[in-house]
Amino acid sequence: MTIAIPFDNSYARLPGGFYTAQAPQPVRAPRLVAFNTDLARLLGIAPGEVEEMAQVFAGNAVPQGAEPLAQLYSGHQFGNYNPQLGDGRAILLGEVLGSDGIRRDIQLKGAGRTPYSRGGDGRAWLGPVLREYVVSEAMAAFGIPTTRALAAVETGETVRRESALPGAVLTRVAQSHLRVGTFQVFAARGEIAYLKRLTDYAIARHYPETQGSMGLLAAVRDAQARLIAAWMGVGFIHGVMNTDNSSIAGETIDYGPCAFMDTYHPDTVYSSIDRYGRYAYSNQPDIAVWNLAQLATALIQQAEDKEAAVEEATEIVHAMPALLEREWLRVFAAKIGISAPRETDKPLVTDLLTRMAREQADFTNTFRTLGSDRARDHFTDPVAYDSWAADWRQRITQEAAPEAVMRSINPAFIPRNHRIEQMIAAAVEGDYTLFQRLNTVLARPYEDQPDHFDLTRPPTTSEIVPATFCGT
Ligand code: AMP
Ligand code: MG
Question: What angle do CA 220, 223, 224 make, to 5 degrees?
Fold first, then answer.
């Protein structure tokens, strides 16, 4: 049996200035450690022999129809503009049309050096590859827009980080890898013909119902607002919301030092490189607005009438905070069982969150057990819950099916950071049991799975992971 990927490439048809043709660099001894059969089916990929798949998803064998390339982009990293980033360790093999009619990129992450590698080695180590695999698939199971993981391969080589670590390659699937930074690079260079071409391409690929650069801006705004509100709802902290990690399609992309909160606190930061908390949990909506403003600045460069474009773009960007607020309330109201929130429901939600922060309540478990006898036990002072719950019970008497609403949005299982770290530590020793188990359980995050109750537990004091490190 030979693996067959029905490539139908469009990015490779764009002008040469958009990318550099670049083959992945072979590795010594590839070993397939994960393959996502459900996703493969959606993509119309016929799996091959395991050995052959290891070769393909390590980049050792370029499959028929692939046109490997590294994409050019730039971006603001922690607020500072970097004029040239680009795929420094990722190779786009090509695109496929899924059985759902959606076009998706197939990309190898960690596939070797490219012209955009700057000082980097073009490689990834096993830890971040497995973290991205588990977390992105969990995100998909939550129903939150995200890139997906098709395969993971160990390379049989070591990469040098703080120490020598096992190398790996992740096969990432995305609705596209267009970023805010893809627009920024052409705008900053004054390459207006390319900027226009990119705008047309993005509209045709992601928002065919919209028109013009300002139509695109508004569509990206709406998608990003929904995405960030959904992140907030599951306690997700991306960790590196740079403009090059901000997807035009509105997917979660570039999982690096990301994590889900255990104990609720709005200021939570995990990333060891985010020293000033720019990308803290509660800053994410503001940062999404800031990133949209950078997209607006880039898009405006192609306007004939700059003044009019500035005015229109400003209006679109200025509407985002209210939109985020509305999406946020929709998510958090549902989390307490309210399906059509009123403005007056907001204080009820914020009151709960304030008490949770003060009483160190576990974010996921508190929402999952709301209304049950167990909820109050998550608060250091259970009375803080009781007095809130009295008001809340009053309010939800007016709701038709609060239990069902809550159970469809409050997961029982999240990829807790201490489990991810345990999973990585075991995999480095060749034990993939926890990796498999996390994938299986997190595929159905809204179902109680009593056999896996241990995975709902927050970390013990000795298990707490204070920081996660950059995905390089
Ligand atoms: P990230 O923080 O993963 O979004 O990456 C930011 C930029 O650094 C992108 O241009 C990446 O391609 C590049 N990069 C990250 N890690 C490496 C690496 N190991 N080798 C080469 N380039 C890298
Ligand atoms: Mg990135």
Answer: 80
